[in-house]
Structure formats: structure tokens, C-alpha cells
């Protein structure tokens, strides 16, 4: 195992805005991860001049104001904000948001999305794999949504089971970050990383607030018994034509 492959980042719990992953501190070139911790009653003005942002509310309750419209968001609800547009966030309770960022190429329209597991299977709500690696996928920013580089969503596996299996990679087209939540310590999941088919280079124990970057290579995960591997995934296209969800290449050593 290559212990030098250190792709894990732990996000702060202190109040305020935190940049967790960027091209300045990681092997990612087009993908960012942020965390915003807001105490009840506090506000934050969100704007980024170069990046489009997709955010999920991990915990708490917030009110957001965009232009003349306001929205109430609950856990796992999401919003998309193009670069250069401003958003006001008010914490109605102590709240945590995870955000993904990618280059804005003048394509994208603000929207909010309510997390709704009653939606029929389709573009937004999906089920991938089969037991023991079946998982629920909810697109917070789908390929069909108008955006420049990002595709994002929430994945949750079954209790003690695998996700992102069989191992797959999309190294020539998309970078990715897994931002884990709903795994309070001492519970944990395991994130496996490898740039070489048929091998494992690194294993990262992860709990709520941990990020693992995927600038290249294979990246399956598994939850400990009694725990579901649950994460907000952030994919950013290396080129505009790669903003697609069907470019994964499975590891032939593990295909069933």
C-alpha cells in the first residue's frame, strides 16, 4: 500500500467559511470543496466570482434569499449558484453546509432542489448496483440541469455494504471529491483509492466532515456494520464535453 497517497482532508467544525479542497492544496485542478458552519441567527453572504457552486444542507435549517425570492431549506436540500450571483443565507438553527465548486463557463441558472425520496426513479432519484452494493443516489445537480462543469449528488449505501462498486474510474474526463456526512464518530466508513486497476493503494477511514479527493483512479467505499456509507459527491469536468454521468470505466478485475 502506498502510504504517500494522502488524499484525505478533514473539515473544521469552527463557525465560518472554510475552503477544504482547492487546486492550491490538492492534486485536483478543477474541483473545490467548501464547508460553511453557521450558528443559529447568523448570516452569510455567498458569492464567488469564478466558480459555480452546488451546496447541500447537512444539518440544521436555513433561509436563503436570491434576488426577490426566499426559500427554506432542510437537511439534504440543495441549491445551485452560478458565479457572480449573490445569495444571503440565514441560519434558523445551528447549520452545516457542504459545497462543491467548479469553473463557471457562462452556463448555469440558479435553482433549489428539495431532497425527496418519493420521487419516481429517473434523472434525479436513482438506484445503482445490486445487493450487496446497492445504493440510493439523489442528484443535487444533474447532468440535465443547466450548469458549466459540475455534476453533484448524494449517495447512501445499505447498512455495512459497499458503494461505488464495482470500482470505476473516470480519470480522463472528471475529477471528484467525496464529502462524507451522517457518519458520526466513532462510526466510520472506509474509502479505498487506487490509480492502478486490480490494486488498492490507500485505505482511508472516514466519518462526518471528512473529504477524500479523486483526481484520478478507482474509489469504492464500504460502511462498518451498523453504518451506511453516505457522502456528497462533487464531480467537475476536465473539459466541457466531459460534463456527463456515463463516462465511468469499471475495473475489469472486479466486474461480476
Structural commentary:
The protein is an all-beta fold and 256 residues long. The chain has strands at 8-10, 16-21, 32-38, 43-46, 51-59, 62-66, 69-73, 78-81, 87-91, 95-103, 111-113, 125-128, 135-141, 150-157, 162-163, 168-169, 174-180, 189-193, 202-206, 210-214, 221-223, 230-237, 249-250. Strands 1-20-17-22-14-13-12 form a 7-stranded antiparallel sheet, with no helix packed on it. Strand 18 and strand 19 form a beta hairpin. The radius of gyration is 17 Å and the shape is globular. The relative contact order is 0.20. The mean pLDDT is 96.
Show unreliable segments.
none
How would you describe the oligomerization state of the chains in this entry?
single chain
DSSP helical segment count:
0
Q: Ends: how far apart? A: 24 Å
In terms of DSSP E residues, the strand content is over 45%
Shape: globular
- Rounded Rg: 17 Å
Summarize model confidence as the mean pLDDT. Answer: 96
Largest sheet: 7 strands, antiparallel
Please supply descriptive tags for the structure shown above.
seven-stranded antiparallel β-sheet; 256 residues; mainly beta; globular; single chain; 23 strands; six-stranded antiparallel β-sheet
List the helices and strands and how they pair.
Elements: E1 8-10, E2 16-21, E3 32-38, E4 43-46, E5 51-59, E6 62-66, E7 69-73, E8 78-81, E9 87-91, E10 95-103, E11 111-113, E12 125-128, E13 135-141, E14 150-157, E15 162-163, E16 168-169, E17 174-180, E18 189-193, E19 202-206, E20 210-214, E21 221-223, E22 230-237, E23 249-250
Antiparallel strand pairs: 1-20, 2-3, 3-10, 4-9, 5-8, 5-10, 6-7, 6-9, 8-11, 12-13, 13-14, 14-22, 15-21, 16-23, 17-20, 17-22, 18-19, 18-21
Amino acid at each position: 500500500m502506498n502510504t504517500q497517497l494522502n488524499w484525505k482532508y478533514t473539515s473544521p467544525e469552527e463557525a465560518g467559511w472554510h475552503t477544504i479542497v482547492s487546486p492550491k492544496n490538492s492534486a485536483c485542478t478543477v474541483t473545490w470543496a467548501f464547508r460553511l458552519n453557521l450558528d443559529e441567527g447568523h448570516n452569510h453572504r455567498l458569492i464567488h466570482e469564478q466558480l459555480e457552486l452546488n451546496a447541500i444542507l447537512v444539518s440544521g435549517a436555513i433561509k436563503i434569499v436570491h434576488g426577490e425570492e426566499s426559500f427554506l431549506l432542510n437537511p439534504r436540500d440543495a441549491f445551485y449558484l452560478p458565479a457572480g450571483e449573490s445569495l444571503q443565507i440565514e441560519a434558523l438553527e445551528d447549520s452545516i453546509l457542504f459545497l462543491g465548486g467548479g469553473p463557471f463557463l457562462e452556463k448555469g441558472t440558479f435553482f433549489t432542489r428539495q431532497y425527496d425520496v418519493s420521487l419516481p426513479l429517473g434523472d434525479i432519484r436513482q438506484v445503482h448496483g445490486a445487493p450487496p452494493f446497492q445504493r440510493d443516489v439523489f442528484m443535487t445537480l444533474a447532468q440535465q440541469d443547466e450548469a458549466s462543469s459540475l455534476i453533484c449528488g448524494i449517495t447512501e449505501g445499505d447498512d455495512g455494504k459497499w458503494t461505488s462498486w464495482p470500482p470505476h474510474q473516470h480519470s480522463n474526463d472528471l475529477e471528484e471529491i467525496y464529502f462524507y456526512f451522517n457518519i458520526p464518530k466513532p462510526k466510520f466508513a472506509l474509502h479505498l483509492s487506487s490509480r492502478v486497476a486490480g490494486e488498492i493503494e490507500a485505505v482511508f477511514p472516514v466519518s462526518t466532515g471528512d473529504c477524500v479527493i479523486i483526481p484520478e483512479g478507482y474509489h469504492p467505499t464500504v460502511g462498518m456494520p451498523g453504518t451506511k456509507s453516505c457522502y456528497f459527491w462533487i464531480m467537475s469536468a476536465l473539459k466541457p464535453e466531459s460534463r456527463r454521468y456515463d463516462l465511468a470505466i469499471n475495473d475489469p478485475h472486479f466486474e461480476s
